[in-house]
């Protein structure tokens, strides 16, 4: 039987500094895994079917999570999951693919790297998280770093591709912030929440795939291995870890970990496809890594002594 949990969400306990460091390291595995998507798609999967790849990444993993957890949404959570699944997966994937098709990969990756900046502003308006100039500043540094790594001299700016890239960053950014705001019902773990969203987003992708792309005519053993990696590791495991982290850590700090995805993609290209990294790209790596590490810190604010009080003390 499937269980329908209570819609009341408990407030998570803030992690200690040591626990937060370990939690951050664990959550960073999600964008690291997502960074493998490009090389898996280009080297293992049938060409010309990115939407189908997104479908295979989401829907089977979501259904598997439902079978494992045997938990369904309840009450208002039905429409909340429809919104979250669409924003984080169903809408984000098509916009990501459209941006990748209309723009060089480096431009698309740089636009995606703006997500932590978008999240920082959305978190203030929706979650009430205190605005952090520190994290926004490092978010800008991260975008510059990613740009140095992935942008090439032939980078071109197609208006439709740019709008799709920015809209994709806004879509997942809004989904991340709403996931933080709504949390999850008691008795529902991160695996169930990931399964709900993957299933909802997968249904959206199923409709889009059937309408605009279709299925590949031939799927070989390499493609099956690629789909299994995207679905089980890049979908089920990565999203479970990601949604667990959003609940426990500041949402802007978590979003900054997303800078790892384009860096991992570039690293895999260098090591597996024998692509070379110029000194400028290595400098970009250093900037981006510094940004995502510094973004996990919360700078201490100095308490200023009021002028009047200081005068009285003299």
3D structure, described in words:
It is a single chain. The chain is an all-alpha fold and 314 residues long. The chain has one domain. The protein has helices spanning 17-27, 29-34, 37-44, 50-69, 77-90, 92-102, 105-112, 115-127, 133-150, 159-182, 190-212, 221-248, 251-256, 260-272, 279-294, 307-313. Helix 6 runs antiparallel to helix 10 and helix 7 (105-112) runs antiparallel to helix 9 (133-150). Residues 6-11 and 304-314 have low confidence and may be disordered.
Q: What structural class should be given to the helix and strand makeup?
A: mainly alpha
Number of E-type strands: 0
User: What is the domain total for the residues?
Assistant: 1
Distance between the termini: 74 Å
Q: Portion of residues in helices?
A: over 70%
Mean pLDDT: 82
Quickly count the helices. 16
Q: Which term fits the overall shape? A: globular
Low-confidence runs of at least 5 consecutive residues: 6-11, 304-314
Biggest β-sheet strands, sense, barrel? none
Question: What structural keywords apply?
Answer:
single chain; 314 residues; mainly alpha; 16 helices; globular; disordered C terminus
